[in-house]
Amino acid sequence: VASGRFGVTPTFLANADQLEIKIAQGAKPGEGGQLPGKKVSAYIAKLRNSKPGVPLISPPPHHDIYSIEDLAQLIFDLHQVNPKAKVSVKLVAEAGIGTVASGVAKANADVIQISGHDGGTGASPISSIKHAGGPWELGLTETHQTLIENGLRERVILRVDGGFRSGVDVLMAAAMGADEYGFGSLAMIATGCVMARICHTNNCPVGVASQREELRARFPGVPGDLVNFFLYVAEEVRGMLAQLGYEKLDDIIGRTDLLKPRDISLVKTQHLDLNYILSNVGLPKWSSTAIRTQEVHSNGPVLDDILLSDPE
User: Fold this and answer.
1) Which domain of life is it from (predicted)?
2) Please, what is the end-to-end C-alpha distance for the chain in angstroms?
3) Most CB atoms within 10 A, among 52, 146, 251, 276?
């Protein structure tokens, strides 16, 4: 559910397994998005309730969300239209994200996604990819610690993405407090993406990001490639967990005491203070297992229930 609301219909919402409100993207925070008209084929136009060849512009803000109360209302509406689907809110790693995440948790969201600057779509402006947003490590740490301090951590699942490349990243994210982990760009590479960075031109040479049939015919990927990639990531995580002496990933979630800075001296990083990331001093205890087993959040009794139950 992005700011343009393209393709968001009652049928779409009612049949989804999970719904996500995308506040921004890690690669271009606060900039909105645009799908060029030449990429809006008849099929894409049908999915997005538009017309072929018409550019689809998503504005930077959601024009129905200008406060945390507005966001809470949208989360309420999504829970009403599909009580079985978890509602996720995607935020971008930046200073102050902990305060926003606390509001999202209080607004009855099921999942909070933290998106870092290091990944992102190939259609983003190069200036934004290189210079906008913040690292997921800082955003995740601030969100995790702020939620614990306010007694909200057990109410939401924390999901993180943005430049994940291996099982090492998964283990680091888990130790910093994340429950779930997203791979985007590297998963595309596993299926055949060559990082030509011309996604916005509709001329992707391997057909990954093109609507042109002659280019899509060149697509070399098969589902097995992606399955193998994630199997190797999972095996890498399993091996490192065994070396640390743990049986499952849940055992190390929030265990920042397992992280140690590398003992190297670099000019650009020698004055960085990583104590904020590596310390959980003063934070109360919380249970990661409770988060995994919780049901989809409910709106509770509402007037609709009374009206719909009345036969007259």
Assistant:
1) Eukaryota
2) 35
3) 146
Q: What pLDDT, in 10s, does the model give residues 249-289?
A: 988 998 888 888 888 778 887 788 888 888 775 566 666 76
Provide the β-strand partners of residue 89: 21, 112
CB 120 within 8 A of CB 28: yes
Closest CA to 208 of 183, 191, 223, 225: 191
* 31 contact partners, CB below 8 Å, separation of at least 6: 24, 25, 60, 124, 125, 128, 132
Please tell me the predicted confidence (pLDDT) of residue 286: 66
When pLDDT is averaged across residues 38-42 and rounded to a whole number, the result is 90
Encode 145-173: b = buried (16+ Cβ within 10 Å), e = exposed.
bbbbeeebbebbbbbbbbbbeebebbbbb
d(CA 239, CA 6): 43
Taken in order 34, 35, 36, 42, the sign of the CA dihedral is negative
- Percentage helix, strand, coil, to 5, in the chain? 40, 10, 50
CA-CA distance, 142 to 145, in Å (whole number)?
A: 5
In total, the chain counts a number of residues equal to 312
- Rounded CA-CA distance 142/136 in Å is 10
CATH assignment, 10-190+222-296: 3.20.20.70
Mean pLDDT, rounded, for 105-111: 95
Q: Which residues pair with 283 in a beta bridge?
A: none
pTM given for the model: 0.90
Residue boundaries of the structural domains of the chain: 10-190+222-296
